[in-house]
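Let us practice reading a record.
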Amino acid sequence: AVVPGLGQIYNGKGLFWRLPVLYAGIATEAYVIYYLNNQYQNYHKGYVTYSNYVTSLNGNTNLYLSTSSKYNKMLASLGIISTYSPTDIQGELKDANDFYKKWRDFNMILMGGIYFLNIIDATVQAYFFDYNISDELTLRVRPTLINNSVSNIGTFGVKMTFNLH
């Protein structure tokens, strides 16, 4: 379970199509998580820095106009045009921060799902490799009429009989 795909190699099944799909899925998810985490870190840093800046203004728009060039450069590096008021920009940074965090976390869960599906696949292949269904096991399914003791009216049903010889 520690090395993804090792169970499939050990079982000797699915080497030609399961392993490439598994490693492609893991590599894709790793890249997506890396990208989303970088974006989240950038917007989180920008949100915290800009929130501290807006808090330090105390509603003084003259101070905003004199010190905004430093923060405009930071916002431009994040791809945000600073033509809005400081609180609108702060809201945009918060929305972007939450967006990237949500999708990063979702993709981490998705990568864990891929990993556990790999483990389940290898386990099923290992246990059912030599599984044999003999004629001694039978399951019979037949329609039947069931008597309802309360209303004394018959009801249609299904009777399943499992025999071990």
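A brief commentary: The CA atoms of residues 2 and 9 lie 13 Å apart.
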